[in-house]
Amino acid sequence: MMFSSDGFLTDQPPSKGPSQTHLFTSFPNSAVDLNDDDDDDDLLLDNKSNITQSYAYKPANEENLSLPLPATNKNNTNNEQLHIWQLEYYQKYFQIDTQQVLERLLGSITPKPNRSYFNSTIRHNPDLYGPFWVCVTFIITVAISGNIVAYFQLPDTDFQIDFSKITLSAILICLYWWSMPTVVYFFFRYYIKCNEYTFLELLCIYGYSLTIFIPVSILWMIPIAWLQWLLTIIASVISGSVLIVAFWPSVDSDRKSFNALSMLVVLFAHLFMAICIMMVFFHVSDNNINSKIETTMLSTMASSTTTTSKV
Amino acid sequence: MSDDQSFFLSTSKPIEIIEGNITSASNQNELSTLDEPIIETVKRDLKAVLRKFGHALIPRQSSTLLQQWDLWGPLILVTVLAILLQSDTTTASSGMQFAEIFTLVLIGSVMISINSQLLGGKISFFQSVCVLGYCLLPLLIAAFSNNLLLYLPYRSMLHIIRFLIVMTAFAWTMYASIRFLGQTQQPSRRMLALYPIFLFYFLVSWLIILRKPFK
């Protein structure tokens, strides 16, 4: 259907007469396609760019009158340039299923000396979902357990949720999650000069290595000092050994002592992080108990002196 | 359509000029809602918000929450919840507490919506913020009843009763949001999308349990 020279819709192809000054070549969009998602504006932008390309009207080709396919169609995404400000750009880091996440979580807490779980599970598909939400869960459990511990240590009236401590722990843990892979990446790239791990895989493995600390942070609430130290050491040894098993194949060169040293550095960094968290939030030492007794003694002494002075 | 009319006039052949009103039906509706008194608009919006409250409380099969999303309901709910959870008498720190809860709910909803979009969910950003906000309603009811209960004696029993009320509200909230948001993901990733929602509502219920009343 198209406009003929006298302005009415006809079925005949256009014939540009001598008096015609203009030929309709593009048509505006019809009403919104109800099957579309009411999604972000990125889709509308892509639709508009497709329309402006179909400027020349071919009467035999009726398809130009219909709307182009929405960009959520899987076949279309390969043709478009995804930019860093579009959400779809980051979707490739989240191609993961529940089953795979559970496998990776389980693999990060069971060190198997022969088979590196890294090679079997993460290598072909690193993701950012697992590490991010493991970190967030860790921060939340540390915050909640630390608050419970503080609740029992302080008198009842003074208790407030200390958000500054929570933000501090959040910053520390995220910093650890990002800085250790950076260090390891540069170490592998410039010192050992083998480019075996991408930065994303390192992020992934470090994020998953924090899973064991989640149940440990709940157990850290038990106010027995030696138990807290024992838990810290066991947890960091287990997750550190998973890391070492993952890194060992690429460090395995002639310099045996150097390899052992570098792996020990990784282990000690892990231990250091765990000790920091424990000391800041949970540590029950004799100091804490003594200080509470002292404050109560001081308050009773102050009240008794005031009563004696009044008498 | 004025372009067409100029096209008609520029040719030399005598043509019949078509005249008439070109407003379509949708234009007329928009004009009419612009002219109506404000009380009508407010009443209509309020009715929509209250209907969505009902849907959040008793999740049925309808998709009203998803298709006709609005952000008024979540805003009202979060503000009332933040006011209810204030526990300090000094104005400075009570302002801080209000800001804490508001920020927590805001950032939590944003992170969950981005997460479900990144996992490939078929729901838009504002729809998911809307659903998360509306599903806070049972927790709000629990916070309100907690505040009322604190005026009664029997402190130790009260703690247990408050805890049970908040846990029930948390389970109700999770059920409602699973009904609404669970359908929008592929089955293999459903748990991945629902776990952050669990964390979020767990944090909010934790804050409700923990707040102490005014002195």
From TrEMBL, chain A:
The answer to keyword Lipid metabolism applying to this record is: no
Annotated GO biological processes are: vesicle-mediated transport
Which Gene Ontology molecular function entries are recorded, alphabetically? small GTPase binding
Q: Which domain of life is it from?
A: Eukaryota
Q: What is the lineage of its organism?
A: Eukaryota, Metazoa, Spiralia, Gnathifera, Rotifera
Q: Please classify the protein's predominant subcellular localization into one broad category.
A: Golgi
Membrane topology designation: Multi-pass membrane protein
The segment(s) forming the Yip1 domain are 111-273
Entry GO terms, CC: Golgi membrane
- The answer, when asked if Transmembrane is one of the entry's keywords, is yes
* Keyword field: Membrane, Transmembrane, Transmembrane helix
UniProt subcellular location: Golgi apparatus membrane; Membrane
What is the protein name stated in its UniProt record? Protein YIPF
Q: Which InterPro entries match?
A: Yip1_dom, Yip5/YIPF1/YIPF2
Q: Which family does it belong to?
A: Belongs to the YIP1 family.
Segments crossing the lipid bilayer: 132-154, 166-188, 200-220, 226-248, 260-282
Q: Identify the stretch(es) annotated as Disordered.
A: 1-23
Which Pfam families does the record cross-reference, listed alphabetically? Yip1 (PF04893)
Automatic annotation (TrEMBL), chain B:
InterPro entries recorded: Yip1/4-like (IPR045231), Yip1_dom (IPR006977)
Q: Which PANTHER family match?
A: GOLGI MEMBRANE PROTEIN YIP1 (PTHR21236), PROTEIN YIPF6 (PTHR21236:SF1)
Give the CC-aspect GO terms.
Answer: Golgi membrane; trans-Golgi network
Major localisation? Golgi
Please name the Pfam families in this protein's record.
Yip1
The answer to whether the entry has keyword Metal-binding is no
| Protein name per its UniProtKB record | Protein YIPF
Q: Where in the cell is it found?
A: Golgi apparatus membrane; Membrane
> In this protein, which residues make up the domain named Yip1?
64-207
Enumerate the Gene Ontology biological process terms.
endoplasmic reticulum to Golgi vesicle-mediated transport
Q: Which stretches are annotated as coiled coil?
A: none
Q: Which family does it belong to?
A: Belongs to the YIP1 family.
What are the protein's UniProt keywords? Membrane, Transmembrane, Transmembrane helix
Specify the protein's topology with respect to the membrane: Multi-pass membrane protein
Lineage summary: Eukaryota, Metazoa, Spiralia, Gnathifera, Rotifera
Q: List residues traversing the bilayer.
A: 69-86, 98-119, 125-149, 161-181, 193-210
* Domain of life of the source: Eukaryota
